[in-house]
Design a protein that fits this description.
This protein is of the alpha/beta class. The protein contains 26 helices and 19 strands. A hairpin with a 3-residue loop joins strand 2 and strand 3. Helix 6 packs antiparallel against helix 7, helix 12 crosses helix 14 and helix 16 packs parallel to helix 17.
Length: 681
Amino acid sequence: MIFCEVEFVTNEKATQVLIDALQETESKKNENLQAFNAMISAEVPALTTMVCTRISEKSFSFVLATDLWKEGKSKVVANVKKWLQNVLHVKGKLSVEQVTVDDFLLDIMLAELNDYLFMSSNRIKCLLNVDYFDNRQFHVDEHMIKEAAFGKKKALEQAKKILADKTLLDELERIYADINPREFYGHPVHYKINCCSPESGMEIVDLLINALYDRKRLRGCRINLVHDITPECYDESDFNDFVVSAKDNVVVIDTRGIPNSTEDGRYASVYEEVIQYMDRIIHRNCSDVLFIFMEDNSYPGFSAALAAQTQEYLRIVNINEGIGDPAESKEYLNFLASESELKNFWRKEGNELVLTEKAYTVSELRKLFQKWSNDCLSKFVYTAYADYQQTTVKVKPTFSENKLEELVGLSQVKQITKQIIATNVIAKKRMKTISTVQSTSKHMIFTGNPGSAKTTVARILASLLKEQGVLESGAFVECGRADLVGKYVGWTAQIVKRKFKEARGGVLFIDEAYSLVEDGGQFGDEAINTIVQEMENYRDEVIVIFAGYPDRMKEFLDRNEGLKSRIAFHIDFPDYSVDELMQIMDLMLTKREYRLTEGARIKARELMVSGSNKKNFGNGRFVRNIVEQAIMKQSLRLFDEMQAGREYSDDELSLLTEEDFKIEDVLPKETGINVMGFRVA
């Protein structure tokens, strides 16, 4: 839906024009406007809401909300102008400007305060389904891009200013390709922005939307950012109303600050319902709404899981945050300064800022500029604070260090991981001071059975190496055979190269790498050869981690000496013991606020013992399956008894009993098929 402010300017006195149109001579201005708004409500086209909010000497001001923008802005404007001229019996000039929903509602409320409305502003909000700004399960911020012409030249100039990554430059080339029609038919792609700060992410969003609107790939120019999403959002009708109201515009889903992983590397199940709910809404609206998933490289929240869920029906283009060398980074700092209140001080003091690293991300540069701004304010502006000594705050372990330590068991894995970090940190410091030191291989192999936390540790390792300055972006790109092998000759090499570019400055995690060559096809060989080549090309920029079953990984490496010689570290992930499995279960239950009876604990332990002795045992995944099935069985049990009239306290609703763990179907099958779900007896 498009929301606008409209002004109709005449050459005659507006108050008299209105009185004549209503054939009133003695009515007050307020009563005339109420009558006029009642007339508008009755006569404007369906799917359009229009309210007169003010009249001045020779003009009328309106707000407009319409679903008819698909007919074209010029046609909507022409129809509104024609209707006003017919009603008011006067010619005039009409101007229309798109606005945010919040600005639209503010105009409506001001009109209500002036007693111009014939119905309440709350009634109008309800009719338009835009009463979602006060929702506590999510928050919405809006802003508009300018409707003025943009152009490819300006887009590329702006891209250079914001230190655009090649992924963004490539997308701008596609947007401005001459073979594309300059007309809206739908959204061929949606986007995932990989960034480390909301500011750098929104810089990319604004540039993309300006370019798309310029090429008529969008009807509206309103950007709706939804953030601070809670686990309770999964059944909020307000969220559905918010997305529907964004028709013809853009929705950015930001999950920054939301914890994102469990012990087995999957997203915390507390948000699974939110993901499923949003997936359904996105599926219904993706033809009319452009969706952008914003993901923090270090703390991705559930955006990656949500984007993955939508891949069956969406084509998603990944856009990475930019990285620049010292010269490019200095230009970006100059750009930030040019938009700052301290730009005059930057000319005098900022150019002395020394950049010592080989490369910087946009987020890192923003942090540097913020620190300079804070210092500048105290040293050169509010000089009374120049000698103030800041209170020293004790440094706590980083988020990633805590996440590593919080993992159940894996004591040897944790120790080796710390050795890897220490080795890389010291090697980087030596390279800065000792010119003869050569860079060493950082690539790794993780071996272990499913659910043994290989992916989780790899993701944490990427964040830790970023925090320690070993990796530039900390990007984590996970892929398997399906993501690397193309359908035709020559495709595979290009796909692999794109994955390395996507992982630049971070980690490329290749799961079940041996599957690339198990069918003996030439495409798999092409993938391996290209991987070996790119490992060398990106020797100092990408760490490759191969993961899979221990025995099959050994066979894989024995067949590929080129790979084997480039592997620096090998971590073996053991299966969890029964005691560790019980600890994992307790953590999962605590997060979901469930408790166990003693009988339930005994029964759960029996399942752990039986499951861990099976061939296809799934470690942490097996535990999660047990927990989810026990909760489902408890829910069915309580529901049946509630239907019979029994009531339960909050404490009883959170208690799992021995009966709930009678779920033998959860045990791994020797055929290799692990039955999911549950059976109703």
